[in-house]
Amino acid sequence: MKRWIGIIIVGALLIGMVAWRLKGKSEATAAQALAIQARAKAAPLVSLSTVAVRDIGRSYAGIGSVESPFNVKISTKVTGRIEYLTKREGDAVKVGEVLVRIDPTQIEAQIAQAQSAVAEAEARLAQAKLAQNPNNVGIRTQIDQQKAGVTSTQADYNQVTQNYNAQVQAARSAVVDSQGKVDGAAAQINTARANISSAQASVNNSKSKLSRTLDLYKQGFVAAQDVDDAKTALQVAEGGLEVAQSQLQASNAGLDSARAQKVSAEKNLEIVITKGKADIAAAQAKLDQSKSGLTFAKSGDANIPAYTENLKALANAVDAARAQVRNLQSQLSDLVLTSSIDGFITSRLFDPGSTVTPGQTIFNVVDIKSLFVTVPVPEEAARRLVLGQIADVQFDAYPGRKFPAAITQLSPAADPASRQFPVRVTISNARGEIKPGMFAHVVFSTETIRHATVVPREAVIKTPTGPAVVKVDAEMVAHRVPVKVGADDTAQLQVFGDLHAGDQVITLSLTPVKDGTKIRVNPPSDAKKPQRRHVIHATGEFSE
Predict the structure, then answer these.
(1) Which residue has the higher pLDDT, 131 or 85?
(2) I need a labelling partner for 515 at 20 to 30 A (CA). Which of 270, 367, 487, 538 fits?
(3) Does any domain span residue 15?
(4) Per the structure, how many domains does the chain have?
């Protein structure tokens, strides 16, 4: 009986506990529903940011390796053993500082040997000059005499030729003159003949006139005086005919004389030509004889060129020996190697006692007073860069520090592989903090928009009608304002619309904010955050 009573009591307790749990859960559900309803009716909790007016800067960040503009390889021009070498990697060097000395013993011995060869060559040249002079003097004298003879006979030949030409010209002139006289006499004959014909006509006319006058006189038509006049006229005409005939005779005599003179002149011309040619031939023979004598004299001069060439060869041997001495002496200066720049040793490849050959690098010396970094830049950014523009360079070894650099080279052509334009910036490194080979981040300013109205990127929302922001007025009421988006950087966007510097816009809300809704504000987050700018890496984007 007691057992059943215990079972009943336990069962009653279990039933009571279940009922209590069910009641508690129902009360919690009701409380949760009431809380949800309260939150739905409460004003949204948002974060605000202030509209600002500022400059927006766009940049491009590239990466490159630091290089030295001067990387000098110190090497020797001669073969030898290093007897002096103290510098090591990292040591600073100055212009003209001695870095290496090569053992000069071997070259000094070669110089002594070369100087002996010079003395021997000079002695041979002097002996050859002494043997040549007497022979040359005799040959030159004979040649000069024969040249004088040729000059004299050439002058005689020229004189004979000139006389011949003058005499032939004079004789031909005489022939021409006599021909003129012949032609003149022939013309006088023709004139005389014409005069005879004219006088004969006058005589015939006078006879006819006299005959007519006599007939008329016999008939009594004219006086006796007319007959006398007619007779006188006939006598005059006959006298004129006689004169004309006399002139013809004289002209014939003149023609004969002129012809005789022409024949004489032609014979004289033949004589002049014949004699002149004979004189020229005789003068030519003398000239040829003189030239033959000169040729014979010059035949004795055949040895002079051989002597001359021998002297030239000996002189060349002297010059070659002297050049060898100078070359070896210059190699003495090549045994001392100095630095051509101010810089630092970056590598040392030999130690004292080592033997080096021409062209082998012993030291590498770099100048680090000014260094450069070459950065590949895409076309969009490269077209906005100019020579002399300042860029910021950062190094992993100096976090947080920026080194100013100037653009000193803009490549006009893109790299065929990357399609990017190499841009070189030069960095002043007076303190020597930067080392060649360091990894560099270079930031170029590509564009600056002045006095832009900007809001945080998260303040711009998308709506069916386009971008918009939610502006909060002084009564903490939200108003949706349509905007147009302009330039941007990582943190903020340029917007165009009914916004002004100092306006408050919503940047974060747990629930959507409707136009005209009363809102509650969290502490403004943008007042605690520093401004960031948009920086594009060669491999993507980052903010700083």
Answers:
(1) 85
(2) 487
(3) no
(4) 3
